[in-house]
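Case study B.
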Amino acid sequence: MGATEVDVLKGVDLKIESGEFVSIMGPSGSGKSTLMNLIGCLDRPTGGSYVLSGTRVDEMDEEALAKVRNRNIGFVFQTFNLLPRESATENVELPLLYSGVREPRALAVEALKEVGLGHRLDHRPNELSGGERQRVAIARAIVLRPPIILGDEPTGNLDSRTGAEIMAILKDLNAKGTTLVIVTHDQAIAAHSERVITIKDGVITSRVD
Amino acid sequence: MLFWQVIKVAWRGILANKLRTSLTMLGIIIGVAAIIAMLSLGEGAKKQVMESISRFGTNQLKVRPGAARLGHVRTGSVENLTMDDAEAIEKEVPGIRSISPSAGSMGQVKYANRNATSLITGTTPLFMEINNFPVAEGRFFDETDIKLMKRVAAIGTTVKKDLFEDGPAIGEEIKIEGQTFTVIGIMSTKGQTSWFDPDDQVFIPVSTYMRRLYNQDFLNDINIQVENYEDIPDVKKGIERVLRARHRIPEGVESDFSIRDFSEMIATMQKTSQTFSILLSGIAAVSLLVGGIGVMNIMLVSVTERTREIGIRMAVGARRRDILRQFLIEALVITVSGGLIGIALGVGLGASISFFGDWETVITPSSIALGFFFSVLIGLIFGIYPARKASLLDPIEALRYE
Ligand SMILES: Nc1ncnc2c1ncn2[C@@H]1O[C@H](COP(=O)(O)OP(=O)(O)OP(=O)(O)O)[C@@H](O)[C@H]1O
Ligand SMILES: [Mg+2]
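Model:
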């Protein structure tokens, strides 16, 4: 769609094991979000290959990609990306609707309780605080129990205390076996992870294992 | 995504913009209402024809002076059908059960200080039987009255009401065109048809009409009842042969009279209702087209406004066809809601046409089904492009949309 073509990522060679907790850091504009969108199957690489649980994602058709986004990956965005007109529960029901679950409400309520929002089920996003909105987004990401959770600066719009609470929830998920990849500018948050990848101008410059 | 969930989402999208959506529905509402009204008029005309047939009987023929011209108003200026013609037909054409010549014109009728202008019809006793129009009170004139050219009259119920209100009429003297007549009977009520009130008529013996009242020799029509419906073509041919010979019409020249049976009356009636139908179907077509374009426009706006929502839905697993279906159904909910309102409006419109306009209207289930079908069709035709546009959005572009 863009008028000019920009090569954002160049020669990324990255392998993430199942159950890992990886942070991605780097200066603004370095290509972190672009990398996360590729991992999350929202974007397609113009070249190279991406293998997810043994399957070539870059060769999948749209339908298969939608299914991967639905079942295998839970995405948490910096800007929450909730539907403004729908209640917390309805937002969390969304992935369930697209996977054909007949009675989505019970599962959605369960996920909301898990992130500590059992008392805000019928509130709309604009009736919730930033931290609460991000909890709704996490509930939506985990409601189908995907093996991978991706967070693109999930605490970027939150104060440090709320950010720490959100990180605690994510770490807990990782402890239960979910693969966790997050982008962050915050050293303190990156410190929680097992591995930090630094990216600069679209090239991975360092790995701390 | 389950069907009711899609409907729920679509409904919510619509409720978020009530005013905008209702304005968009307007074209569909008017279009569908016009369809329903149009069909109800057509059905009404059909029903009216059927009723006329059952009222007058299908084995009736009418011979009238002047050449046949479908749908044209006759001025009555042709004066070539006589009592002798009627007698000749009765004698020479087989298959006729009864025949009744009649002449008529508008005339002044007075009783005391009351005044009415009614159709004065001079005819014979068989008129009642042929037209299935019996006398209700008193008596009709008989052959003796005709022979003696008596000044007696049987009046229709509208005339009775105009002149006598609830008072007694039989035995009273009325003035027709200045001459004194005695009322001997009151007709039964025939009921108004769309163009003519048969109850606003005064019946007098045809001889009195011709010799005493107007001094004329010609008839306005000859009513004939045939023995069998199937014989109508033969009887028509017979009448044609007899009258052409009597009027000395050479081979190849058009007849100076016309013989009408019900197929022609039906054609005339249908032609009139057709004019209305064409007008209404024009309105329907234009408003459905304009309404459809309005729906497309509003859906395109909606897709743009909700680009981010589409991105979010795709990010959590909506497939292209889920998005397509959602927006298509949203368009359909708009047009079908508009269609249902339009159906209700059309039914009301039909009812008021028959109430104020003297036109019978009939709502059939098939016309409602057609109105519904059109609202679905418009939704599909004009909803598919915006829905497709929504479904082809790139998830990441859509999520970035401000
Ligand atoms: N749609 C686009 N068209 C053109 N260039 C783009 C597009 N999206 C991103 N870019 C460019 O790609 C580069 C990387 O963008 P990206 O969003 O991945 O950075 P980032 O590392 O996430 O930065 P931040 O920390 O600010 O979020 C930037 O230079 C950006 O301008
Ligand atoms: Mg970014």
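The radius of gyration of chain A is 17 Å. The remaining cases will be described in the next quarterly update.
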